[in-house]
Design brief:
Layout lengths: L8 H12 L7 H20 L4 H13 L5 E2 L6 E2 L1 H12 L7 E2 L7 H14 L5 H28 L4 H4 L1 H12 L4 H12 L14 H21 L16 H4 L25 E2 L10 H13 L7 E8 L1 H7 L8 H6 L1 H11 L9 H4 L2 H7 L2 E5 L1 H4 L9 E7 L4 E6 L3 H4 L4 H12 L5 H12 L8 H7 L3
Parallel strand pairs: 5-6
Antiparallel strand pairs: 1-2, 3-4, 5-7, 7-8
Amino acid sequence: MIESHKGNPATRGVAEFVANLQYEQIPEEVRHRSKRLILDALGCGLFGANLQWSRILQDRLAILDSTRNCAVWGTDKKLSAPHAALVNGTQVQGFELDDTHLLGILHCGSVVLPPLISIAEGRPGMSGREFLTAAVAGYEVGPRVGICMGNEHIAQGWHSGATAGVFAAAASAARGLKLDTDKTVHALGIAGTQASGLMAAQFGSMVKRMHAGRAAQSGLYGAQFADAGFTGIVNVFESEYGGFCTTFSRSTDRFNIGELTAGYGKVWQAMGVRLKFYSCVGSNHTALDLIREFRAARPFTADEVAKVVVYGPQATVEHSGWKYVPQGFTAAQMNLSYCVATELLEGECFVDQFTEEKLTDPVRMALADRIEVIHDPAITARGPKFRQMLRVEVHLQDGTKMERTREIGRHKVEFSSDAEVVGKFENLASRVLPKAQVDELCDMVLNLEKMDDAAKLARLLARR
């Protein structure tokens, strides 16, 4: 038991929200949105099953651990609960396809769902309503941690999906286990001390894919260990020495701890989660949207382009504005020049545009060299809400110059239609599972409140 709550109002406030959240308290629009977010994440996870890095983890973990009780999505394999959470989280984040919360700078589904589904498999009988409630808890907590930390966190080189992500995972897992407030405090404290993830992983390694998986696993450990009576840091957010906020930010004026508990029950952060329709880092989407707008207004080919100049905030320049050098799929999907060149050449920037041959295609690389990314201090000065604001200039060989500014990509402003959500899910999932199973899974997720046992989700996510 926790003897004093005086030193942990934020940590305890988060825990109270998670432990006390009820299905009936969640507005209908949030339930509706959350089911679409879940469907999208599961589609991303299924597509990720056959990626090289996913297969390496699947095969090596099967050697390291003989426990076989939780499904590896999109396969006929099973692993232990924590290792399934690790692999499934990696698969969801495996190809830069999954959701994003703009202000929280967090991919939510990849950390919220893998631990929760592992719990549902281990404890049959969790209703669809309980599953959805636990998922919403994770979608609410994770972005708040990211908002609390602000742009400074990722600017220092921390990958927020891996750091803030552990709290989203712990929240969904704790609610899935129906932990009380005190045990949820410990779950957060156990998960928080495992937080880590370095942004240098974006420059050409497989390990960035694993950041979400490790966060999902850490959150699962946090909840399961707390359930057993293991204790964590009870003031994991507040502690002045070694607390999450002070450790992961250079100074106390760079984070806002009040954001951790702001607006529970009034502001629903799940409504701020958006979906991706380009297979690349979210900060590139605004530029890709603008390229499509330019072409709609005045069609032109890649050969007609003399140069493209992209002006953006410092965060975009550092995150994706570096010179493209072939270093694997991660580097290509994170790099703005490569993605714009790909859109110009193919009119698309989705999964089929990233192959071994295309990563080193001389034509694509030469075009990427004609795409400049330049820091615009005026955009940076506008603050975190304008983190994806870009001004793009397209200069054609005939002297034509086109210029537009967008504050954010279209799908970051408008949530996707049901047809778009289902279409993307079917596109990705059908590459791994038969159509009848894809249809059944889609119907089950969109009607979660009618499901009697959430373990059915795991069975439908497995290849039969």
